[in-house]
Amino acid sequence: MTTEIEWWDYDDAAEMADAVAGDIGFIIESAIDARGAAVIALAGGKTPLPIYEKLARAKIDWKRVTIIPGDERIVPLGDALSNVTAIGKAFLPKGARVIPLVSATAPDYKAAGRAADALLQDLHWPLDLVLLGVGGDGHAASIFPGPDFDEALNGPKERRALGVMPDPLPPEAPVARVTLSKAALTSARAMMIAVTGDAKRAVIEEAVKAGQSSPYPIGRILADVELPVDIHWAP
Ligand code: 6PG
After folding, report:
1. What atom in ligand 1 is closest to the CA of residue 141?
2. Exposed e or buried b per residue across 23-53, where buried means at least 16 C-beta atoms within 10 angstroms of its C-beta
3. Which atom belonging to ligand 1 lies closest to the Cα atom of 81?
4. What is the total count of domains within the chain?
5. What is the CATH number of the domain that holds 101?
6. 133 CA distance to ligand 1 centroid (A)?
7. Dist CA 100 CA 67 (whole Å)
8. Is the peptide bond before 126 cis (omega within 30 degrees of 0)?
9. How do strand 229-234 and strand 191-196 relate by DSSP bridges?
10. What are the C-alpha distances in Å from 218 to residues 3, 10, 173, 187, 207?
């Protein structure tokens, strides 16, 4: 299955943030209209933070919105690397329900993944939206090469989250992770990607070309998505 991909290019990150925040707001409102609530997964990392700032200002009935990070670094809440902390900063003051994937008590990363998977059973699936970022190494969510790569890509469909030890560890956040599985990501009603820079664009283009046989996680994910995917890009 190869999905239809549309690139949206912007002059700068602020212009991209406006457009992507608008698109996400529309998806949230449509979900609330259709089902009375919206459940979305947002990307970690730094690129999407201006998007979240703008989105949080939208006039949305935030009480009806549940947000999870698409992946989490296994660090304490409040840590500079914590994805849910950054997401929560933007949306908790608006009244959204922001759910951490990682609790401080899991004894190891595998157990943290199992706990996240159990927690996610209580949400309404499929997700209304997955927003992904992409790393310079081609990872998305926290699907990385390493001992858990195959499980993240090809594990049982009903497993929504798992623990991951990237190998090599990414230098910008060299810690174990919990991630949504490819099955959970690709089951979403909508998927979009927001990235900046020529290097990431080149990685995504190469990954899409290689499809199922791509060494890049983002290529493996996109090869399995059935809906059209918008890729938003700014220099
Ligand atoms: C994570 C992310 C990850 C992120 C990329 C890009 O927690 O690592 O969710 O998939 O989107 O690493 O991160 P930047 O936007 O910071 O480059």
Report:
1. 10
2. bbbebbbebbeeeebbbbbbbbbebbbbbbe
3. 7
4. 1
5. 3.40.50.1360
6. 5
7. 9
8. yes
9. parallel
10. 13, 21, 18, 15, 7
Q: Does the residue 194 lie in any domain?
A: no
- What is the distance between the alpha carbons of residues 179 and 163, in angstroms, rounded to a whole number? 6
What are the DSSP calls for 168-233, one per residue? SPPTTS-S-EEEE-HHHHHTSS-EEEEEESHHHHHHHHHHHHHGGG-SSHHHHHHTT--S-EEEEE
**Do 142 and 83 form a contact (C-beta atoms < 8 A)?**
no
Residues in contact with ligand 1 (CB, 6 Å cut-off): 43-47, 70-71, 73, 83, 133, 135, 139-142, 173
Q: What is the pTM of this model?
A: 0.97
pLDDT for the residue 1: 58
Q: What is the pLDDT of residues 27-82, one digit of tens each?
A: 999 999 999 999 999 999 999 999 999 999 999 999 999 999 999 999 999 999 99
Domain span at residue 36 reads: 5-185+199-234
3-state secondary structure of 67: strand
Rounded Cα gap, residues 45 and 51, in angstroms: 12
